[in-house]
Give the backbone structure.
Amino acid sequence: MSTSIDFPTGAARFPQRCVRCAASADTTIAVECTSGIDLVVFKYWRWHDFPLPCCSPCKSRRRWAGVLFHILGLLAVCGVFCGMCELEPLFTRMGQRDLWLWLILGTTAGSLYLCRNWLTPVLDAAFLGVRGVRLTKTGIGTLKFRDRDFAIESESLSKEGDQPHT
Ligand SMILES: [Zn+2]
């Protein structure tokens, strides 16, 4: 069971332990909340990076996973593209070359879209146990935590941070 918490982007506070393994945190890692749409050629995009406390080993694991899976993602896009190219003679024989051109554009853009918009939160959830869910127009970012205690503590710390100091 994971727990979703809404944070005002300017007032998010987190407990000083690694969000993933609960070791003492010696660094932070940015977890982004986004809203909008990125269609590669058309882009309407807003985001906010929440600096989550993290230990160095967890941070470097997440970074390496990011590099590796982005390379795999690009290979997959190339694979889809090459696979569609192989089908060209078939579509030409059927007299559907135009359809083939649209399909190749669609599948390539579609797989690029998935790589860009879907990979980051999936990797964050898998390797950090937290991911950005959404960002509202009013500047509220929603994070989803695997560790319920970390989520609840973060929520109350952020609320305390909101109180005016006297
Ligand atoms: Zn850790």
Notes: The CA atoms of residues 33 and 132 lie 4 Å apart. Residues 18, 20-21, 23, 55, 57-58 surround zinc ion (CB under 6 Å). The mean pLDDT is 90.
